[in-house]
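Internal ticket #5521
Category: modeling
Description: The requester needs a full-assembly model to guide mutagenesis choices. All entity lines are attached below as received. Residue total reported by intake: 532.
Assigned to: D.W.
Attached entities:
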Amino acid sequence: MLRNESKIRVRYAETDQMGFVYYGNYAQYFEIGRVAALKEVGLSYRSMEENGFLLPVKSLKVNYIKAALYDDELTIVTEVRELPSNRIRFDYLILRDKELLVEGETTLFFMTKEAKPCRPPQFFIDQLKPLFS
Amino acid sequence: MLRNESKIRVRYAETDQMGFVYYGNYAQYFEIGRVAALKEVGLSYRSMEENGFLLPVKSLKVNYIKAALYDDELTIVTEVRELPSNRIRFDYLILRDKELLVEGETTLFFMTKEAKPCRPPQFFIDQLKPLFS
Amino acid sequence: MLRNESKIRVRYAETDQMGFVYYGNYAQYFEIGRVAALKEVGLSYRSMEENGFLLPVKSLKVNYIKAALYDDELTIVTEVRELPSNRIRFDYLILRDKELLVEGETTLFFMTKEAKPCRPPQFFIDQLKPLFS
Amino acid sequence: MLRNESKIRVRYAETDQMGFVYYGNYAQYFEIGRVAALKEVGLSYRSMEENGFLLPVKSLKVNYIKAALYDDELTIVTEVRELPSNRIRFDYLILRDKELLVEGETTLFFMTKEAKPCRPPQFFIDQLKPLFS
């Protein structure tokens, strides 16, 4: 399994007039988590894209349990629990200390720069495979 | 059933370097759709909030079928298919002309300004009830 | 002179916990205004970009006079007061009814897709010139 | 003088289809910088707000020199060069390694929760005064 914990601090811009983090902004937090998770095994999303592989999001699910507030330090826990095929699924937890605020999942797929779905690059599989045995 | 169609135009700020609307930004489009849907039956989300009723989001699901592009004119179709109880569910379609780009759903719940879950205000139910018989 | 008035409605996502539109979001409103101003003389920013001309922002100034609130209908007044050379300056007013909320200006420059500053395309000047005599 | 250096990493959501950080997003980076600068002398913007003092932005200026890119690690240098009166001015530099990308300034003012301009709280001046002698 691939697992990463990343820390972020809630920005003022991310709150709304309810005084909470706007519900759409967790998608950014998930993105931070999955990029960090891939970096942990030497996979840079940036260089993947420079090499012609895009990873658009196919689906997103979020459950909002408790609101995150301005200036909170949040932990993003990201997991990939299965070896990716043409798709890759990430599961997320957003915590404030030990308190679970939000849980989510995204499925992404591989695509060429010409917008054609494709298989993941070989180096991608090579880096991840040892974690799933 | 409550149903609304709203039009928006994709802003440059909403794109990302893939050249698509960033996946998290559809949450904003859904919010525009549901506010417009409520307005259609004389319910102003703004005045509900001024009267002490908040409507935070409990869950979000999104399926991304095709990417929206900069300057696209999009139609947000919003539906409430069941009379709300303490929760209210909205279903969304995002279309470019007749082409379905994204489908989503959100469940929201009613909350007081003191952050306590509560029943919907009576005027809210009164406005919606005639649509669900 | 080139002049455009566009209407927008403040989104919930654009507010912050002060209950105002977040100060950085006016940059998006200005962008909406300048794109609409160019459209008024038949210039599509989208197709300019597809033809290889980018228009990044060189400078931004904003004065915040009064706060815009959630669900406000705002008017964005955009003006180009001088025929553009390699640079083009836009001036903006953001109004709620007749009340001035924000004033701003941006200077943009023309750039090729290879990130080289360049002269504006000839059709761009041709469309604008009649307005500045 | 008050001075702070903070690091951030550019998020995918912050890019636009030009492949650069969207010009309006630097306002968020500046906000991160000024909050960190105040924290350095024991001033929490969050607790100031909880104590009834708001700090809305009065003016913003930005010069864009070079574009920041996805996944760049940026340094935000924030300075307060004069002891604040009813207003407080922050100056910012955004750097990638030693390379200057953006410079900016904001002026903010103190306001009560009832939206009346006011003097800064005494503890605010007490914390800052020793730095400006």
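Resolution: model delivered.
Comment from assignee: The interface with chain D takes residues 17-18, 20, 22-28, 31, 49, 54, 56-64, 67 of chain C (CB under 8 Å).
Ticket closed.
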